[in-house]
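To illustrate this point, we now present one chain and its tokenised fold:
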Amino acid sequence: MANRRNLKKRINGICFELAAECISARLYGSVSQEDVNNIMGNIFSMQTDCICRISHVEPGMKAKVFFRKLREDMQKRIDEIIEQISGLG
């Protein structure tokens, strides 16, 4: 298992890439600023939620199970955000 610092860096990198994709959709398409702001809010709330969960592991839960659940939840949210971005164009 990777250490927490590396996990946080990876989460920040993923969120940066999603935000960049969202901004490029705004710049190169006819997308409303309100839609972009909503998606950016979703991205940053996912980032904050995941990083907080990494910092505060649930007591009584095995680390392997906790981080597997975190990864699954994050993947679901990433897929939702990607669908929102692809729906902009």
Remarks:
- The mean pLDDT is 91.
- Residues 4-86 form one domain.
- The two ends are 38 Å apart (CA to CA).
